[in-house]
Amino acid sequence: MHEIFARFQAALPEPEGELYYVNAFTLLVAVVLSAQATDKGVNKATRPLFAIADTPQVMLDLGEERLREAIRTIGLYRTKAKHVIALSAALIAGHGGVVPQSREALESLPGVGRKTANVVLNIAFAMPTIAVDTHIFRLANRLPLARGKTPLAVELGLERIIPPQFRLHAHHWLILHGRYICKARKPLCERCLIADLCRFPGKTAVAAAPVRGLD
Questions:
Q1: Residue 69 belongs to what domain range?
Q2: What are the catalytic residues?
């Protein structure tokens, strides 16, 4: 585990998420909107949206109808617009318009589940959480790192085995590796930093660790 994450760190010391945001509130909104959508598609809609609505009150004032129009290019935009308006109202009513820094409080907001809460805690508040998306779930079971039948099982397994010094950025390293290198259908093993450490029987190549970045 130490060698795997040491290589990720050497290749990309300060990884960042690919969702556009300007503060903790817009990050929360962006992550809610990203469910079953690509970061690129979400960013296309949120850049102009966040230029005019970057606080819960302004988002509430914008209203559900105008918000739907702003995000209509994103999948499930009607439901997501309802959630964003509702969570904006909940933030104002229960948290003084401030995004809370606890998983429990975040998960109490409309449209916010454990994965969304973990992303916000990790990126906005620098907490060493692991948000298990489809990429992390695949990698954890494929390499394997921490096998599990559910996202929660994988999350807890990763928390147990990832060395503490790597936990803050582990979430991003794994997502980026899964998104661009260890792809679902055809992993690019010849470009993989950890090919020699991987035990996946379907590897497309067996190579010594290359000296190159995640992309």
A1: 24-125
A2: 115, 133
